[in-house]
Design goal:
Length: 427
């Protein structure tokens, strides 16, 4: 969407009217150019995640954007830029490579700032403002998680010092001096202590062993299990469950429901069922990544085709099976794109401003739980011919993809005010 009326924008953002139209347009144009440069650098990072120059360039670019947005009194864009800048500063300091998740969240920052610079009135939309607030929180969460990973080794090292003090091998003041020196080096606490001959090697080894005992159940509480191995275990448990079910039924027939063997068989059967359910829970992941991919692809189409359509998602924290989470983004995206084409493509071609304002559409993708099922609803506010969608080859193809994922799909009218594509799956 292009900026049509600088006066309208000035009125939309508090304080913006104090800036002359020419300067305001210059600032907005510069912001858009910087965002394009950031996108190019992100492409470089996708191919070379350890490129420090690209990371630093993006960091500096967001710093510039925060300054420009501040001059425009655009508080929302400023918050997004500052939060992204702080995350990148942390990445610069502590991450040898930038993760794909961080790249995704930076792309989301770009998308939000683009939307605001093109249409400042968007911040008045409660859904959009809520999305922006959640996005800023996610930026802060990623930063905090990186810092936590950095701090944890320091905490373990300091506990070695605590043990040495408790055992009488070192004084507290000596430990504090070592920790200060450690902050300026990559050396471990024990290495510095040995180099400075504060204690014997046997004292350090003893402290490390005591630390391991102390941390049992915390430092090693997570292990990685390949998905294939997890499925093998689930299959074995299911077979054992079937065997115990047969044993239980046979025990009931031979000895009655109150017999000791029957009771113990029933207990064993329930325990195995609990194990199976726990293992299945280990396969569960959130829809966050799938929704992020969906948002990027859909918003890209909306911007490229200059559609006046608001797109939003909710329920990204809903958990589904990992296989579904990995494979559902593509058919979801195809369904949304099909709906965009069938219902909203004409909006972009309408040049009458007053009519266009009335024709601004919205598509919302919402995930929610109900009993033991997960629902994903794609809802659009435009009236469409359902048969036209149902008979479209793309709809049929994606219907088959969703069926292969054990999903049930329906499409229906919303009382003549829109259309809803409903996807249901067993949790």
């Amino acid at each position: 969407m292009d900026i049509k009326d600088n006066k309208d924008i000035a009125l939309a953002v508090p304080g913006l009217s104090d800036i002359s139209n020419s300067y305001m347009e210059d600032f907005l144009s510069e912001i858009r150019e910087i965002l394009e440069d950031i996108e190019l650098e992100l492409v470089n990072l996708e191919m070379d995640p350890g490129n420090k120059e690209s990371i630093n360039s993006i960091y500096c670019s967001f710093h510039t954007i925060s300054g420009l947005a501040g001059l425009l009194n655009d508080a929302t864009s400023t918050k997004i830029a500052v939060a992204t800048e702080e995350l990148l500063e942390t990445v610069k300091k502590y991450c040898p490579v930038i993760s794909k998740i961080i790249i995704n969240v930076i792309l989301d920052s770009i998308s939000f700032i683009k939307k605001i610079s093109s249409n400042p009135q968007i911040i008045d939309d409660h859904k959009i403002s809520g999305e922006i607030e959640r996005h800023i929180k996610s930026l802060e969460t990623f930063r905090d998680e990186i810092l936590l990973e950095v701090r944890q080794p320091l905490e373990r090292q300091s506990r070695i010092g605590e043990i040495l003090v408790r055992e009488g091998a070192m004084a507290q003041s000596e430990v504090e001096d070592i920790l200060k020196k450690q902050s300026n080096t990559k050396m471990k606490f024990g290495e510095i202590v040995l180099r400075e001959k504060k204690v014997n090697a046997s004292d350090i080894i003893k402290a490390i062993r005591m630390q391991k005992i102390r941390n049992t159940g915390t430092s090693d509480q997570y292990v990685k299990i390949p998905l294939e191995r997890l499925d093998q275990i689930i299959g074995i448990i299911q077979n054992v469950s079937s065997i115990y079910d047969s044993v239980k039924n046979e025990a009931v027939l031979r000895f009655g429901s109150n017999d000791a063997l029957t009771i113990e068989s029933t207990k064993a059967y329930h325990l195995i069922t609990d194990i199976r359910n726990i293992l299945k829970e280990l396969r569960m992941v959130t829809l966050q990544q799938a929704f992020q991919k969906l948002t990027r692809s859909v918003c890209s189409i909306i911007e490229e085709d200059h559609m006046e359509v608001m797109f939003s998602t909710m329920g990204e924290n809903i958990e589904v099976d990992k296989e579904i989470a990995d494979r559902i983004a593509l058919p979801l995206g195809d369904m949304v794109r099909l709906l965009l084409e069938k219902a909203y493509s004409g909006i972009a071609n309408n040049t009458n401003k007053s009519t266009r304002e009335k024709q601004i559409g919205s598509i919302e993708v919402v995930a929610y739980e109900e009993a033991n099922t997960v629902h994903i609803d794609i809802t659009g506010d435009a009236v469409v011919d359902l048969e036209d969608i149902k008979t479209d080859s793309r709809y049929i193809d994606n219907l088959q993809k969703l069926t292969a994922l054990r999903c049930h799909t329906d499409i229906d009218d919303i009382e003549g005010e829109g259309v809803r594509i409903s996807i249901t799956m067993q949790r």
